[in-house]
Sequence to fold (651 residues):
Amino acid sequence: MDILKLKSQIIDALNLEEMKPEDINDDAPLFGPEGLGLDSIDALELIVLLEKNYGIKLSDPAQAKGVFESVNKMASFIEAHK
Amino acid sequence: MIQIIADNIISGLGRDTAENLKALREGRSALASSRLFRVPDGKEVMVSLMGLPVEDVPQEMTRLEKFMVECVSKAAHRLDRGLEILKDRSTIFVFSTTKGNVACLGKDDAKSFLWHSSDAVAGYFSNPNVPITVSNACISGVSAILLAKRLLECGLYRTAVVVGADEVTEFTVSGFGSLMALSDQPCRPFDIRRHGLNVGEAVGTLILRRADSADEILRPDGYLKTPQFVTGGAVANDAYHVSSPSRTGEGLYRAIIRTLSVPAGSKAGLACTDVFVCPHGTATLYNDQMESVAFSRSGLGNLPMVPLKGYFGHTLGASGVIETVLSCHFMDEGWLPGCMGYSEPGCYPAPDVSSDVRRTGARMFIKTISGFGGGNAVIKVEKLSEGMFKGNGNLAEIDVIDSFSMYHEGDVKEFLASVYRDGNYSYPKFHKMDLLCKGGFIAAEKLLDEVCDDDSTALVFVNSCASVSVDKEYQQTIAENNFFPSPSLFVYTLPNIVIGEISIRHKLYGEGAFFVQRDSSEESGMKLAADYVRCLLSEGAAARALVCRAECLKDKCIIEAVLLGPKVN
Fold:
């Protein structure tokens, strides 16, 4: 799993213009005030990212909460479902 | 007083208002499964469609425009010399649409501009005035009726023809799908098992006319037995989020209490025998819950509710118009249809929704609507009663308090980013916005305090290109063999999102309107915006307004903004 690539895909998909892949901590929460400050539309955009780049469908939005906890969580989910 | 003098509805349930009412009486819904429109999960989608348009209109008109012509003709024919009234200089056409001819995008781009349909339809009826196009996302229909009422009340016109129209396209269906807002079953407003909305299409026409005294009230043959009047209304923003409704129902609560002239913090004391409510009731989890909270806070929780989405789906720019028209007839005929799809309360505090037909002796109804961009619009309609006529106010004079403009040709994205950097604004969300929002955001930074926290500042935007740059970007995400509709791009395809972004940034809970006009310049579009501000100030609906012309294309940008307030002598 190429973590750096995943991070740049996230930056692209969410228009995090002022961020570089190395600014995103692997284990830091993506959502909420301590993380990247992402919101509900960002979560939906990450669902599109998974499908578009990895062919993984996440049809239950409730599942998203766990999957998008951090970049590491996302990476292991992708590994497990490829 | 602003009287409702004629109407018509075209939907999947019929091509005039009577056919639609008959279907509701018989408990029929227009919703059906379709494979015509792709959605992200590849399933069938539940929609309501209008069928085929009439053919005895100019062939260069689009499908939607043909339906609009048919709908306006049918409404006008209810009136004595109706077609003559449409031609009169004192008559204004007000259109409400979210995406208009978006089906033409990429095929016949010139027709896809929102003002195109308005110009074509008003032109067809030989109306000499520049038509107004309101594009406030889902609240457009009620916004348009309220705008028309205000223009008439201030004496700018005598008659207004309000036309709400939207069709079901892959563009909108895939967009709502990407937001996971669609239900693949018929929607269930306010029900415990609701899990999303259905997109529908319809066209509605409502003709309004000013009567300055009881002698001027019209009584068209076979129309409402007791004349009805639009007697109030308000628009308010949640200042919370551009696509999620406020958990506290803030904007809707404020729009309701302003419509009913109830002081902030108090509840309306209305009797359930006298008033009913036609809510938005899309059947998404968050919308219906938000409405329930706002109704309870404002004291409407005890009033009978008539959600109509189970019959038509969410007809977007048409919904506010057709649901108001139907409510006029429910009040006239004294019955309320049951809520299709509802069986068990699913919101707290539960509003008074019923699946059964009910009788009503109501003399007033309240129509509410909420939508993307955090907008909420409310109007009230009342039957004729004693002492209704009060003098009309004078049209307020306005002055420019401050102004800001910027122009750029070349890379607009980079230009706006450099203005943002030079301004030292700290607002990371800026980078996620589309060009229109970025342009509007900067204008607001220049002219407003960082935190205003008021509901007396109106935001009035006008442009010609609506959100065409992001429309094209979104359309690329739904290409034939590369179908990954982007939820964030879809949200920005609604031009009024800029009003939501500014409201969130500056904590503004006031009036907002987005006009899409062929000519947005000072001579035309900006003049309309300034006239509307004069109406808002006259009514006391706002104390000042940020008016902004915002044309933001990839390679060209025009921002002309003014802060307007009352004239000081």
Q: What stands out?
A: Chain B touches chain A through 19 residues (CB under 8 Å). The radius of gyration of chain B is 22 Å.
